[in-house]
Known about the structure:
Blueprint: H1 4-20, H2 33-45, H3 52-60, H4 65-76, H5 84-87, H6 89-105, H7 111-114, H8 120-137, E1 144-149, E2 154-158, E3 166-171, H9 173-180, E4 190-192, H10 195-204
Parallel strand pairs: 1-3
Antiparallel strand pairs: 1-2, 3-4
Helix pairs in contact: 1-4, 1-6, 2-3, 2-4, 6-8, 8-9
Amino acid sequence: MSNSWNATERARLAQALALAGPGAPTLCEGWSAAHLATHLVLREHKPWAVFGAPFERAVAGATERPAFDALVTSFARTPAAWSPARWAGEQMNLLEYHVHLQDVVRAGPQDGAARAVPEQALERALWAQLRYFARLLYRPAPVGVVLAVTDGPRTVVRKPRSGSGSVVISGQASELALHAFGRGAVADVTVEGLPEDVAALAVRFPAPAPRG
């Protein structure tokens, strides 16, 4: 099935949210697990309500455990056959669910499990989607960007602007996705290039702490 990996990540994300509880922190600044669960359900069922007052009202109703659990159960359900989240789930949701799963587990005591090496088939599926979306994700980058999978393919996602060079971001696809979505501070990636180019990119795309 072409949609199998987004379904797998949906189930893992629902499980992580349930284990974390509504008040647990996430890597999304200012958001608890209740905020994230609300976002996920509204994004799929009421996308017009994911901003502003409607979103805040929905979050307020999800801060208690029974309401939060009901929300997570709703998110965990397989979408209806007619829903875009079902027939276009890989394109719509795989990267979204993978990144939000890490938002939950890397912000809390589940962090060790989060860093287990994902299945190679999942890595390939993530790379297929990331390669497609990376040009849009890195559009704000002030320098050229090359993504390189460890011992695998690489792709130029942004050409250098006048007066700048390019940086090469290396890692597994699952980690490259975190960097592309602004979670580079917790991603297991290597960013290489001229110091001024690496620093310029880090302003918009946080870099992991230096190793060693």
